[in-house]
Amino acid sequence: MPKVFVDGVEVEADARDNLIEAARRIGVHIPYFCYHPRLSVAGQCRMCLVETSDAPGRLLPGCQVKVKEGMKIVTNSPAVKENQRGCMEFHLVNHPVDCAICDQSGECKLQDYYMDYDHQPSRIRVNKLNKPKREVFGPLVVYDAERCIMCTRCVRFMDEIAQEPQLAVVDRGSHSLIATFPGQPLDSNYSGNTVDICPVGALLNRDFRFQSRVWFVDKSPTVCTGCSNGCNVYAESRGNLIYRLLPRRNEEVNQVWMCDEGRLTYHASNEKRVEWGEVQKAIELLKPLTGKPGIAVAISAQCTNEEATSAFLLGAELGASRYFLCGKPPGKHDDFLVRGDKNPNTRGVQLAAQAFGVTLEEAAAIDGSVKALVAFRTDGLTKLPKPPEVFVAISQNEFEASVVLPCESVYEQDGSLVNWYGRLQRTWDSVPAPRGDAAPAWRWAERILTGLGATNGPQSAADAFEALAQRLPDLQGLRFEQIPDDGIVLKNQLPSEWPARAPRP
Amino acid sequence: MTDSLAVESELPTSLMTVNLGPSHPAMHGTVRLTVTLDGETIIEAIPEIGFLHRGFSKSSEQSTWHQVLPYTDRLNYVSPILNNVGYILGVEKLIGIKDTERSQYLRVLMGEISRITDHLTCVGAIGLELGAFTVFLYAMEARELLWDRIAELTGARVTTSWTRVGGVATDMPPGWEQKLRDCLPRVLELTDEIDQLLTRNRIFIDRTRDIGIISAEDAVDFGFTGPCLRACGVNYDVRKAHPYLVYDRMDFTVPLGERGDTYDRYVLRLQEIKQSYRIVLQCLEQMPPGPIIIDDWRYALPPKKDVFGSIEGVMAHFKLIMEGIQVPAGEVYVYTEGANGELGFHLVSNGKGKPYAIQVRGPGLPILSALPHLIKGHAVADLIPIFDSINMIGGEVEQ
Question: How many CB atoms lie within 10 A of CB A459?
C-alpha cells in the first residue's frame, strides 16, 4: 500500500492505482477523456497531465503513471491548469457548433470540462475542418466525425471487452477519424457500449437519437429483462414511456456493460400494451369452476417472484390441477453477458414452484384436458393448438383470450428476480406515470382472490415476497426491503459451470 | 346635550372587535388587522400576515442562482430594482467578484430612481387616505414618469429582474439619459406641490402630528431601519454607515426626524426623494463608459454572436442556462439600504449550482410587528395614516 501525497494530502493508495485513481480516493478529480478504468491506457487526450515529484518541471499523464511510495502529485499548479486550458482549446478547434442538435448535450464531457477548465472565447479565425457527419456504423450506432475528439475509447472497447475488433482509427493528424472496416459494419452485440463510453456526441445510439433531451428523462435503477443474466441497468423515462436503458455498475453481474439486445427490451414496455381490463368478468368466469377438474395456471418466466408467488396462491384457491411454465424461446448466447435463456426469472419461478410444492410442466403440454387457464403473463402462449374455453390472461402486451387484464412490465413495478446463477435482485418502479389500468400481476391475482372470497391475496410486493420467503428455506427470514440494491446471492443455487468471461460473485 | 352624554356614559358598554382587511381598500396589499375597540379608541390591533406568502425561500432552493432574481422582484414590488441589487451583491460576494464600474453606477442610479418611486407611493397613499386625492394623483404622475424610464431601460415597469451576476442586463438606450434629465424636474416639481399641499396643511398636521409615536429606543429595540427609524432621530443609513457600490462617491445627506410620529415619517420621505434626486444627477455626471457586465463566461452569458457562432460560446451558454452559475460553498449576509430600511439577504451555497438556503430580512417585518405598539390608544381614524406611514409592503414582509 504505497503512500502518496495528492496536493499535499496523504493518500493510502493501492499499488495498482494510477495517479487518477489515487487522487479519486480523496475526491480530487483529475480530468480525462480517453482514460477508462476498464480499458487499456492510451494517453490520447492529455487532459490528465499533472506534476509529480518524480519528474520535476515536466507534466506526466495521470492515466499512465502508476503510484510510487512517497510520490508527491500536484493537480492544481498553474502549469497543470494552463495545460488543461490549452487542451480544451485544442479539443474545440474543429468541434462543430452542435450542442443544440446534439443528443449528448447535457451529459457531454466537453461541455463540463469547458466550463471547469477553459471558459474562454474561441481564438480560431479560420474555418473548421469538415468531416463525415452521419456515418452509420451499424444497426445501433451512428458516428459523427466532426464531434469526435479521437479518444479511441470505442476502438479499445471493441478490441478488449467485446473482443470483436470492428473499429479502427484511419487517416492522420486532424484528419483522423474512427471507421469500420470495408464490408464489416459495427454489428457486435455490444456495440451500444461504445455510445455509453463516448465522452462526447460522436457515437450516438440510433434507437435513442432525437427521441428526447437527456435532461427531460429521469434515471431510475432496475434490472434488464432481456435474458437470465439480469444485467443491472438504469431506465430513463418520462411520462409512461421509457426512452432508453443504460448499464448500471455491478461487478458481479455485468460490470459496467450490457448487450444491445437488452438495450431494446424496453420497447415491449412502451408499445402494443393492454391498457384496460374487467376483473369482474374474470371472477364471474372462474367462480363456478373453482374446485372442478381441468383448471390450470400458466406462469411466464418473465414474471417477478412476487407475481409467480401470487399465481401459486391463486392456483391453490382455484384448486388448479396443473401448472405450466411458459416464457420466451431460448436464443443466442455467448461467454460474456448474454445467456441463452431469454427470460429474466426462470430460476425464480422454479424456486417459487418448489416452495409451493408444485410441479411445473412445459407450456407445450397444454392440451384439451385444460378447461380453464389463468395465465400470468402470456409469453409463449400466443399459438396454443387448443386454447382452453375459459382463458384469463394477465398480459402486458396485446393478447387474445376470454378476459385480458393489463399487466405492468417489470420496469414499471417493484419486485425481485433471480438470475441464472441464483442472484436475487430488486427491480423498482422506474416509470412515473401509470398506463391505463395496468397493475402488477400479483395485484390482479389479489383482486381475483378477493372476488372468490379468499383473504390471502398479497396487498403489496413486500407481502407477496413474504409469502414466498416463508415457504422457501433459501430466503427464510429475508424481507423484501432487506434485499440489497445490488442483489444477494442464494448460495445453494450457484452453478458448477460458468461461461468463460461471465462476471461472477 | 350634557345630560344625554351623562346618560350614555352610564350605559353598559362592551368591547367590539372588528376586522380591517384583508381586502379593505385602505389596507395596502392584503393584510388583516383585528382591532379591538372601546368606542372609538383602539385597545388592541393585531396584524395578521401571510396572505401574500409565496414561499420565497423554498422556491429559491429549487432555482438556479439567476432564477431567483424574478422572485426578488416580488419582494418589495414598489422598488424591485433595490431588491435585485441587494440579492445580486450577495451572490457576487459569495463568488468573490465585483461588477464593472459602469454597472455599479447604473445600479445606484436605478436604485435611487426606485427609491423615489417607492417614497412617492407611500406619500401619495397617505394623502389619498386622508382625503387628499390630488396628492395621490400628483404622486402617481411622478411615479409613472419614472416607471416609464425604468421600463425603457430594463424592459419592465415593475418585474425588472435587471441585475446579473457581475453586472446588469441592459445599458441605457440611446437618448434615455436626456429623457431622464427632462422628466426629473417635473418629478421634483410634483414633489414640491405635494409638499406645499400637505406639509403645512392644518388638517394634515392635526391628523398626523404626534400620532403613532415611537421612541428611538423602542424603534431600535423593535429592529426599525430606514425612514421609520430615522424619523425617530437615529442616524443609520446603510448607504452612509457601510457604503456599498459607489455610494461613498456620492454627496448626499441623511435627513433625520425628531419625534418619530406619522408626520415625521411623511416629511422624511419627501426629503429623501430630494436626496435621491441629487444622487441620480451625480451618477449621470460621474458614470464612466464601458462594459455593463464582466467578461467572464463562468458567470456572464457570452455575447449572442459567440453563442451562435462558436462552440465555446454555445457551451458556456448551455451550461449557464441549464445548470446555472457555479457558486462556491459558503455563507454570506449582505445588507443594503432598501426603500423601507435595511434589506438583508442571507445566502447559503453548498456549491451545487442552486442556493442551499436563502433568507431575507425584509425591512417591513420588524416595523409591522411594532404596529400594535404604535396604534394602541389612538382613535380608529388614526389607524389608517399610521399604517400608511410605516409603508408595509406585503411582498417583502410575507415573502
Answer: 10
The residues, ordered by sequence, that sit 6+ positions from B56 with a Cβ below 8 Å of its Cβ are B71, B74, B75, B358, B360, B399
Strands A372-376 and A390-395: parallel
Which residues neighbour B168 within 8 Å (Cβ) at sequence distance 6 or greater? Answer: B99, B103, B106, B107, B110, B162, B292, B293
CATH topology of domain B48-398: Cytochrome-c3 Hydrogenase; chain B (1.10.645)
The CA distance from B241 to the nearest CA of chain A, in Å, is 38
A114 part of contact set with chain B, CB < 8 Å: yes
Q: Does B326 touch chain A (CB under 8 A)?
A: yes
- B-chain residue closest to A128, CA distance: B310
Whether the predicted model's global pTM rises above the 0.90 cut: no
pLDDT digits (tens, 9 = 90+) for B153-190: 999 988 999 999 999 999 999 999 999 999 999 999 99
Does B318 contact A95 at a Cβ distance shorter than 8 Å?
no
pLDDT tens-place string over residues A277-288: 999 999 999 999
A99-108+125-270 belongs to CATH 3.30.420.40: no
Q: Is B316 in contact with A114 (Cβ distance < 8 A)?
A: yes
Spatial separation of the C-alpha atoms in residues A474 and A93, rounded to whole Å: 60
Q: Is A119 on the interface with B (CB under 8 A)?
A: yes
The answer, yes or no, to whether residue B102 has pLDDT greater than 90, is yes
A120 touching B (Cβ < 8 Å): yes
Residue A38 makes CB contacts below 8 A (sequence gap 6+) with A161, A255, A256
- ipTM > 0.90 (yes/no): no
Within chain B, all domains assigned CATH 1.10.645.10 are found at 48-398
Optimal mutation site among A97, A123, A127, interface B, most CBs of chain B within 10 A: A97
User: Given CB atoms, is B302 within the 8 Å cutoff of chain A?
Assistant: yes
Residue of B315, B320, B327 to mutate, testing the A interface (most A Cβ within 10 Å of its Cβ) = B315
Query: What's the alpha-carbon Rg for chain A, to the nearest Å?
Result: 27
| A3-91 CATH | 3.10.20.740
Q: A146 in contact with B at a CB cutoff of 8 Å?
A: no
d(CA A50, CA A73): 7
Measured CA to CA, the distance from residue B213 to residue B227 in angstroms comes to 14
Which residue bears the cell 407611493?
Answer: B121
Is residue B27 within 8 A of residue B20, CB to CB? The reply is: yes
CA–CA separation, B399 and B395 (whole Å)? 5
For residue A439, the tally of other CB atoms under 10 A from its CB is: 22
Q: What is the pLDDT of residues A198-228, one digit of tens each?
A: 999 999 999 999 999 999 999 999 999 999 9
> Does A215 reach chain B within 8 Å, measured CB to CB?
yes
